[in-house]
Amino acid sequence: MERSTIVRVHEGLHARPATRFVRLAKSFESNVEIAKGEKSVSAKSPVKLMLLGVKENDEVTVKADGADAIEAVEALIGYLENPRSGLEEDEAAKPGSGQEKPASPQAEDPQAASVAATASSGDLRGIAASEGVHLGPVFALFPPKIEPAARRLDAGEVESEITRLREAVAAVQKRMDAALADQSLAAGDRGIVAALRDIAADDTLIEEAQAAIRKGLDAVSAMVAASEKVAADFGGVDDAYLNARADDVRAVGRQICLVLLGENDVDLAAVPEGAVLVAEDIGAWDLSRAPLKRLGGIVCGKGGATSHIAIIARSHGIPAVLGVGDRIFELKDAREVAVDGDTGHLLADPDEQARAAFLTRMDAAAREREALGAFVDTVPKRADGAVVEVAANLGSLEEIDAAKEAGAMGVGLFRTELLFMRHMHMPSEDMQAETYAALAKAFAPHPVIVRTLDIGGDKPVAGIDFPEEDNPFLGWRGIRMCLDRPDIFKRQLRALLRAAVHGNVKVMLPMVSDVAEVRRARTLIDECAAELDLDGTPYARFDLGVMIETPAAVLIAPDLAREVAFFSIGTNDLTQYVMAADRLNPAVAALNDVANPAVMAAIAMTARAGVEAGIMVGMCGEAAGRPDLIPRFIEMGLTELSMSPASIPRAKKTIAGMCS
Ligand code: PEP
Ligand code: MG
């Protein structure tokens, strides 16, 4: 029995839809295959199905052979043609944040230069990814190397080696199931573990490894070869999201090998108080287990200012130096390391003199932090008595506590990207509504400003097919992509309307460069409201604002001000676009300076247009936290400044100091 059809699943058959499809296939006894072009695979293996690379509008054939073949083909074709709304979604949450510029080194801070001064020429350097200084014991996270025995098996050993492999796979599955059952696992981490468990539970890896054992390889060598082969298959698919799954396959293969070798991975739970986590790379899996509250610093061979670990480090106020490169291995056996997150300098096992100098600096920084604690509850006001909202930039619900402890008066930017990026699938409307509602409740009565999806071709997201672009920063990102994909955008807008019943939700659109974009977004919001009316789902209208981060938006600011309730100036992007200097390219870092008169003039023009129109003007780029610039922003008429939580007390102090 076989039938062909055109696939109508928006995300194509990868990530969650693949799992749904497989679950449906497995509910039938028959052998079921799905074919695209020449290639046909078992419909009961999520990995094989993902590797088939089925996309929306592809033609596929479903074939079944067995007692319930007709029912199986009908059910699977039915799913492909008409995936019930929400069926391609998953409820497991995975919130987080998007890209963020590094905290600017506080050049005006007299302490900032001193680590470089204590550093000798042989010292290590990396990217200053999260400000602050710390000296602490090294906690090296260099997972054990997998060293296969590279031994040929005798024919008589094959079956017992296969049994050993199966037992190791079962042990890893059991460990992942236990992790999933742990209630304390953050919702965001649950999705990562669930994705890895899906791969561990799939037959593809084991079948590959078994075949290798039958050819005479020992179980560890067979699993290394099998995971490399399957990872290479993922790497070869024409889909950035699936390419990224190669790392998941390697991670699962590695766990299985460690069980076979009787070794344990480094236990992050054992990190001592104040230690500096030193690693070649820190993946999502490690991050989910890291006791961030105990960490004094983070040093990493890979990563940069926009990597996930940098954003988390900044949110938690942990000094971090990333992108150290291969020299990270020099720190592996060090006892202590001094981390300067302001300049990117590192000192391994400093001598007494350097140690003393560094400790003095740490002391001064701690005293400054303590003194700044006095400003946590300050409600800063301008000279005319108007309150200046000092709010937090957040990317996940996990960061709420740190923001509140720092004195955040609401959220000026909730980046919704990681909610999408950390998933194996498109987050459902319900999951999004719950996330935005939790954020609103946590900060009520202060406003929370949620930014609609701002994603571009440089970041893979399940279910969105990004074109290869020569200039992703000038390409199909932010509001441009959302308006072209109303299926994704409306799901987010409906979730936001539902969360707005809490009264303090505002919404802003990223990358706006034309009034028409705002009008089209508003039409979609009206459509969503009408749909919710029809369903009888409770919702409320929200204030709509725009980010001012393109030169076009600055130039048409008076027109935009007539359309929206507020502006939020995104200086990270505005600087790169005004100066034509890529925010990620160190070679033009000197030009990428928000204090450049050209950028400051653009900010002033925006503020003038907003103030004249009587709408709120805020700022959510990293410049909002710069004490040297804050007085100028306040003078321009800004009444809201949103920043990394760790910068909030200092910003409040600066504003309070303007009136004293
Ligand atoms: C900005 O561009 O200033 C901004 C806040 O957005 P992002 O850094 O997320 O691009
Ligand atoms: Mg931006």
SSE topology sketch:
Elements: E1 2-6, H1 16-26, E2 31-36, E3 39-42, H2 46-52, E4 59-65, H3 69-81, H4 114-118, E5 124-125, E6 127-130, E7 133-141, H5 158-181, H6 187-201, H7 203-214, H8 219-235, H9 240-261, E8 276-279, H10 284-289, E9 297-300, H11 308-316, E10 320-322, E11 336-340, E12 345-348, H12 352-372, E13 389-394, H13 400-405, E14 411-415, H14 417-421, H15 429-443, E15 448-451, H16 478-484, H17 486-499, E16 505-509, H18 515-535, E17 543-548, H19 551-555, H20 557-561, E18 566-569, H21 571-579, H22 597-613, E19 616-619, H23 630-636, E20 640-643, H24 648-659
Parallel strand pairs: 7-8, 8-9, 9-10, 13-14, 13-20, 14-15, 15-16, 16-17, 17-18, 18-19, 19-20
Antiparallel strand pairs: 1-4, 2-3, 2-4, 5-12, 6-10, 7-11, 11-12
Helix pairs in contact: 1-2, 5-6, 5-7, 5-9, 6-9, 7-8, 8-9, 15-17, 17-18, 21-22
Bound molecules: phosphoenolpyruvate and magnesium ion.
Please tell me about this protein's structure.
The protein has 660 residues and is of the alpha/beta class. It folds into four domains: 2-91, HPr-like (Histidine-containing Protein, Chain: A), CATH 3.30.1340.10; 112-143 and 267-361, Phosphohistidine domain (Glucose Oxidase, domain 1); 155-261, PtsI, HPr-binding domain (Enzyme I, Chain A, domain 2, Orthogonal Bundle); 380-658, TIM Barrel. The protein is built from 24 helices and 20 strands. It has an eight-stranded mixed β-sheet with strand order 5-12-11-7-8-9-10-6. An eight-stranded parallel barrel has the order 13-14-15-16-17-18-19-20. Strand 11 (336-340) and strand 12 (345-348) form a beta hairpin. Helix 15 packs parallel to helix 17 and helix 17 crosses helix 18. The longest helix is centred in the N-terminal third of the chain and has 24 residues, at 158-181. The N and C termini lie far apart (82 Å). Residues 85-121 have low confidence and may be disordered. Bound molecules: phosphoenolpyruvate and magnesium ion. Magnesium ion is lined by residues 510, 549, 570, 572-573.
